[in-house]
Specification:
single chain, 94 residues, mainly alpha, Histone, subunit A, 3 helices, 2 strands, 40% helix, elongated
Length: 94
């Protein structure tokens, strides 16, 4: 309870005495649960090093793209362009 009050002062959070008691009880339950997890039987195997067995779930890079060779066509299709640049509305104020 004393620690809860101290932490609430550090965080500049005003808590009523009832709230401090409730939070204290919640923290006790959380810490008791963590203790149970620490003592849980995990099968005696090696500790888990990686979260999963997937080594590389990303696809391989492919050369080229769907746009390659169609740059001029895409620029012409743009609503507004200047040479090889597509003009867009300004998003930053000067």
């Amino acid at each position: 309870m004393k620690n809860i009050h101290h932490i609430s002062e550090l965080a500049r959070i005003d808590l009523t005495e009832t709230e401090e008691k409730r939070i204290g009880a919640d923290l006790e339950h959380i810490l008791a649960y963590v203790d149970k997890l620490k003592n849980a039987e995990t099968g005696g195997g090696d500790e888990l090093i990686y979260g999963g067995s997937a080594v590389n779930v990303f696809r391989e890079d492919e050369e080229g793209s769907e746009i390659e060779g169609r740059e001029k066509e895409l620029i012409i299709e743009a609503p507004d362009h200047d040479g090889t640049f597509i003009k867009v509305k300004s998003v930053l104020k000067k």
